[in-house]
Design a protein that fits this description.
Two copies of one chain form a homodimer. Chain A has helices at 9-27, 30-37, 41-44, 51-74, 81-98, 100-106, 117-135, 140-160, 169-184, 186-190. The first copy, chain A, is mainly alpha-helical and 194 residues long. The first copy, chain A, has two domains: 1-48, Arc Repressor Mutant, subunit A, CATH 1.10.10; 60-190, Tetracycline Repressor, domain 2, CATH 1.10.357.10. Chain A binds a DNA duplex (30 and 30 nucleotides) through residues 1-7, 29-31, 39-43, 45-46, 50-51.
Chain lengths: 194, 194
DNA sequence: TGATACATAGCTATGATGGCTACGGTCAAT
DNA sequence: ATTGACCGTAGCCATCATAGCTATGTATCA
């Protein structure tokens, strides 16, 4: 048996997530992470290849948590997809408010950490199912992309402070949600389910 | 009269924008910028306070250019807002495809460069006008936010490669555009203009 | 016209910080 | 004792940023 680990990878990633939230990407230095887990910076390199990999691990953990929340929010597969979609949207937004830096990290890749497409797809699966129920099988993918684009865009702009000038953000959120839902519900209508 | 400038601020910002596109934020080092304008790094600090300010200036210039394009795409204020909205969406997306790194920089703040809210609002003004024509005065702001959220979210995800797995991105874009436009057109209908 | 003063551009040199590597010491399990 | 995992010290290199110097050219005044 190897010597039991003193500082696990989970600890490192957790510390990294905390630091990311408190100080942004700039605050996420290897020294800061090391200090938080009670170790010197070079020791981290036994668990993590380099800083970019740590960032990728943080993004991955964040996506997994978001996916779990969205999945829980989606709920009963046989229920009305419209309230379920609303729960999903709120769950994602709540999550973004709790971990804004993590949310930004996940939904603003392209630069450093390659987007973890698989994990993201998994967390989107529930939305795809709801969209299928609303807009019909043939429009499920397009509707999902429209919905997720709106949702992530809205939350990103909200986090960025783009909505600070006037207006009620909550109302705008409900407005967009309602209009999108009803726009997708054409699928229900077409199939005589409405 | 002071000595005429040899390397202007515009030159520096322009070089910075080019470097941003070719090498991302990491490639945007002061030395690289200096080398590109034919100068040593310390000399840049005569024009720019520090690297963050340079990044902010780059973001500002990018927003201004985007705003000009959107404004041009919006076109005739008295025309049908629906095709105008489509032109605006395409103009923004085209711009993002031309300068992906710049687009990301502008629409992913919160971290480093504080969002230039004023410039952004200005570039959104045409959309606000179109949204007002479509959804009515009382829903103009909400509709604008829904539309811009969808648009920036869609483009961001597209740039991040989130749409690589299956499906036709072009079709998804047109789908979202059409559904949103028709969802907003309730305003037209309510006022008996449709 | 010619000399001086000054503002500005640019440089070299230097400090500080952070990522990362090399290597060595320590301790537990075998 | 040997092995292997863990962690530290020391050090390298790149980058941002600053301090202080030199040079150049314009402007002003004799």
């Amino acid at each position: 048996m190897p010597t039991p680990e003193r500082t696990s990878l989970d600890e490192i990633v957790g510390a990294g997530r905390d630091l990311l939230e408190s100080g942004g990407l700039d605050g996420l230095t290897m020294q800061a992470v090391a200090h938080r887990v009670g170790v010197r910076a070079p020791s981290l390199y036994k668990r993590v290849r380099n800083r970019n990999e740590l960032i990728a691990l943080i993004a991955h953990a964040t996506v997994r948590e978001l996916g779990a929340r969205v999945d829980a929010a989606a709920g009963d597969p046989d229920g009305d997809p419209r309230p379920a979609l609303r729960r999903v949207a709120r769950a994602a937004r709540d999550f973004a408010h709790e971990r804004p830096a993590g949310f930004r990290l996940v939904f603003t890749p392209g630069a450093e950490p390659r987007l973890d497409t698989d994990a993201l797809e998994a967390s989107i699966a529930p939305v795809l199912r709801l969209a299928s129920g609303l807009a019909g099988e043939e429009h499920a993918l397009d509707a999902t992309r429209t919905f997720t684009a709106w949702l992530t865009g809205f939350v990103s702009m909200e986090l960025a402070g783009a909505f600070r000038l006037g207006g009620d953000v909550e109302r705008a959120f409900e407005f967009g949600l309602a209009r999108l839902t009803s726009a997708f519900a054409d699928g229900l209508r077409d199939r005589g389910l409405l």
